[in-house]
User: What shape does this take?
Amino acid sequence: MPELPEVETVKNGLKQLIGTTIDNIIIRFPRLRYPLDQQLLSKSIDQKIISISRRAKYLIFHLEHGYLIFHLGMSGRITLISGIAPKVLKHDHVDLICNDYVLRFNDPRRFGCLIYTEDLNTCKLLSNLGPEPLEPEFTAKYLYDKIKSRSTPIKQLIMDNAIVVGVGNIYACESLFLSGISPIRKGNNLTLKECNSLVKNIQQVLLDAINSGGSSLRDYKNANGELGYFQQCHNVYGRAKELCKICQTIIVDIRLGQRNSFYCPNCQS
DNA sequence: CGAATCTCCTGGAGGC
DNA sequence: TGCCTCCAGGAGATTC
Assistant: This one.
């Protein structure tokens, strides 16, 4: 799925749209995460794109009088086409026509979304988000205070967007391994020191993902044919029944909050 | 408020 | 080769 670093990359690839005007929005298939509201989305027509930003995994188009907000879900892809658009393919749900460009949104699994709002502050999608993991506000003290009264397993807490955004399942598993912390430990059981390690390792894992080319899609390869982050050698993610690279203990996987969670029972406690 | 569970959806993988 | 079943995965909604 597109992870936070990849959304950042997508954002940077859309800079050419800044300054263009939305001439039309074509909705072919409205049933995404939230039903696409043709009438509401049409309010973006004739508005100029002032800037494009990212918050968590949301892409935000700042228009003259409102905002278009995209989320790529887990299979969403945005293609920017210059000139005549190619044939429409399966799952090409939306086209945004911006002067000479066509922004095409394709999403096979339809977990993505596109909404229009005139007020970011009252937008429910953005109102309850925690800090960005790579920004200075995400500190050991912050995390410690957030989780010190919670009995939920730590893995679920670091994947909770109200606590910190952008930590997907892979990052959560890997950062806990690097910190030597078991995913099932309760939040209120972690020390400040452990929070410090966890914050550092979450940031390190994210930076590694950025440096390795962003995408974590299973079948992703970059232009050089190199594998994306998903297929890089993880320490624990996807390695159930294999041996820990550090201590040769068998990696186990358990179910936490409907998510597969991998860890080394010896290195992580 | 917190915690646990449910839900959306399809392509790909594995079994037979 | 073809069908069937299972599953991942973000995050809001729902229920207690």
